[in-house]
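Example (one chain per record):
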Amino acid sequence: MSTLPFKQVDVFTARPFHGNPVAVVIGADALDTPAMQRIAAWTNLSETTFLLPPTAPGASYRLRIFTPRQELPFAGHPTVGSAHAALESGYAKLVDGRLRQECGAGVLDLTVEGARIYVRAPEPKTASVAAPLFGAARALRVDVGPVWIVVDLGRAQAVDALAPDMPAIEALSNALHATGITVFGRSGNPATPLHVRSFAPAHGVPEDPVCGSGNIAVAAFLRETGLLQEFGQSYTARQGMQVGRDGRVQVRVSADSIQIGGEAVTCVDGTLRVA
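Predicted structure:
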């Protein structure tokens, strides 16, 4: 029996037990893929990550990301939380205020600005789809590594009051070869003008508390549909209130890039026993 350093980090918040938790196993070189998947199923968080030595030139570290059911090439809150864990543990160091993360989506640039960590997302791929669960609401299929069906529900009140039919969302996600459904609406509050919710029951995650890739997909939706002018190229999205996690995601959008960022705080710092 051996042990590995382990952290559980709440992301998109500075307050413990808010935001979105990610489990981070540090220096997981000896673990094979089935062992990583078993650990991810055991933590039963939306994602569990494994920090490994880089193989790509210039990368700070390599990251593997698992839901309880399968590996993902990229995910937003695990990227921010794992960068926080890598820096806090000394596994990686900043170079000119930057990290470079190697993952299934390639090598991604991260920047640290005060207490916030930002990642430049992989370039999204979008396509129009129908989402009959949501009536005539406009929907896009957005591939950012995870694939989200993004639905504009209009007002934040509709987002907040939504009572999701999880079996129907799982069936629709599978039919559209998507990770899940992300919905958004307008709050009327300039500080947090968008409310967002993300559902991925097909991956064993009924509601993802504060979803980085879901917010990237919303930003891609706004850019693609010309709605970005309502919010500007930099805004804050609010997510997680319905599951008691209430996080904030900082979003920056330009013609050629989408960045998300936020704060993170370690809630568990210890070791993991592995066979």
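Caption: The chain has two domains: 2-121+262-274, 125-256.
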